[in-house]
Write a structure and sequence with these properties.
469 residues, seven-stranded antiparallel β-sheet, five-stranded antiparallel β-sheet, 18 strands, 19% strand, binds D-malate, binds zinc ion
Length: 469
């Protein structure tokens, strides 16, 4: 059955769209964090929406399970096939068209395989801003970004991926194409169907293109590196800055001193303006050209300093300095990876509960694993903390993770849950957190999700084993 379906696909899509050689498949079978290593009957590489539809139709008729994949940068194994060798991966990497840029309407229409960095560049070429931004932007692709409802570094001002979408084109599990590429900002004609597919991790269909919202390019931008005594002070600073500067507060990131130390140990070119504080905030404000944000930001930071809320402050004087500040924040995941990786968490709570979350989780870790190293950082403006735990210095990372990851994650997720938080703020559920979803969501919520799944994918062929599949 699989062999004849693949033969049919070769005939209609061409040899180069149906990969089966082990060496060609390898890179599609391992996830970014190397948590999963699957097998696949083939990797399909369609070039157009119609080819995706054809591939899905042939697979559905042959009852072959499909795993959609974009840039393969996800953290939860949502795009990795299982170990049976009977699934096919459908890679969207060849759907590479920017279909339209409407500068007057502030929209961009692009296909699933365009990288996030390319979307930003396309918008900038039309003197517009596509604000979604994250460390993986050179590699992650639109389809995956939308399917995981990714967050990143400017959610505070512009929202997560979901909030940046006006319309979608989706290949449904039976191969039909839902052409929902509307560019309307107002449209109350029934259910908002696109929301079914955003954040659905490819379990309900394959996103092939989207109409995205664009924004004016900021005419002015200020970036500051601020020393803070603790996370509570960082949260209070955020509140005061928003009061003083309104929606111009665009990014507000926290780094613990331990996270910064990991970056400095690994990256000889990383140069913080100063480093001797218990924690740091990296913040950015932006606005239109006529705004004088520098004065307003300086005044607000001075007020916070006088109130004893914050310590030293440095404001970037040029783009080189700004990039140097961001290098410190964006280097954290790489620094952890260089040490063999961490037990990662992606928790969110109301901003007012963030300090409490960090304290509870840190106390719990110290009580049971006193020599484990913590790397706590994240998107404070979104209430989203990456509370990561590394092996003690003299303990091999792999062995520590294998032995303690489950208990440590239970503890951190328990702390978030006790504060009405989420175990997955911006990285999705995939395979990694599927059981957790079932354990923590109400039975009614799971039932509703499963009813939607059954309605759209009654045969259960679309990305099985992920989310509620
Ligand atoms: C980040 O905030 O840097 C990303 O979510 C990646 C990560 O935490 O590893
Ligand atoms: Zn993050």
């Amino acid at each position: 059955m699989i062999a004849s379906a693949l033969a049919r696909l070769r005939e209609s899509l061409g040899e180069d769209a149906v990969l089966t050689a082990d060496s060609a498949l390898e890179r599609y079978l391992i996830d970014e964090r190397r948590l999963y290593h699957g097998r696949a009957a083939a990797v399909l590489r369609p070039r157009t929406t119609e080819e995706v539809a054809l591939a899905v139709r042939v697979c559905a008729e042959a009852r072959i399970a499909m795993v959609p994949q974009g840039g393969n940068t996800g953290y939860c194994g949502g795009a990795t096939p299982d170990e049976s060798g009977r699934e096919v991966v459908i890679s969207l990497e060849r759907l590479r068209q920017i279909r339209a840029l409407d500068a007057q309407g502030f929209t961009l229409t692009a296909e699933a395989g365009v990288t996030l960095a390319e979307l930003q560049q396309a918008a900038a070429a039309g003197r517009r801003l596509f604000p979604l931004s994250m460390g993986s932007e050179g590699a992650c692709q639109l389809g995956g970004v939308l399917s995981t409802n990714a967050g990143g570094l400017a959610v505070l001002r512009y929202g997560t991926a979901r909030e940046l979408v006006l319309g979608l084109e989706v290949v449904l599990p039976d191969g039909q194409i839902w052409r929902g590429l509307s560019a309307l900002r107002k449209d109350n004609t029934g259910y908002d169907l696109k929301q079914c597919f955003l954040g659905a991790e490819g379990t309900l269909g394959i996103i092939t293109a989207a109409v995205l919202k664009l924004f004016p390019q900021p005419g002015t931008r200020e970036t500051a590196w601020v020393g803070v005594p603790d996370l509570a002070a960082a949260c209070e600073l955020l509140s005061r800055l928003r009061e003083a500067l309104g929606d111009s507060v665009t990014s507000f990131e926290f780094l613990s001193a331990a996270s910064l130390a990991l970056v400095l140990a690994r990256d000889p070119d990383a140069a913080p303006p100063f480093a001797g504080a218990p924690g740091f905030v990296l913040l950015e404000v932006s606005g239109s050209a006529h705004e004088t944000l520098r004065d307003a930001l300086t005044q607000a930071l001075l007020n916070a300093m006088e109130a004893g809320l914050i310590g030293e402050v440095a404001i970037a004087q040029n783009e080189t300095q700004r990039r140097a500040f961001w290098r410190l924040r964006e280097g954290i995941p790489l620094a952890e990876k260089a040490l063999g990786g961490s037990i990662k968490h992606d928790v969110s709570v109301p901003i007012s509960a963030l300090a409490n979350l960090a304290e509870r989780a840190s106390d719990g870790i110290r009580a049971h694993w006193p020599r484990a190293r913590l790397s706590v950082y994240g998107h404070i403006g979104d209430g989203n903390l990456h509370f990561n735990v590394l092996a003690p210095e003299d303990c091999p990372a792999e062995a520590f993770k294998a032995q303690h990851a489950d208990a440590i994650s239970d503890l951190v997720h328990g702390a978030a849950s006790a504060l009405a938080g989420s175990f997955s703020a911006e990285h999705g559920v995939g395979k990694l957190k599927r059981d957790l979803l079932h354990q923590t969501e109400s039975p009614l919520a799971i039932d509703l999700m499963q009813r939607i799944k059954r309605a759209l994918d009654p045969a259960g062929l679309m990305n099985p084993g992920k989310l509620v599949g």
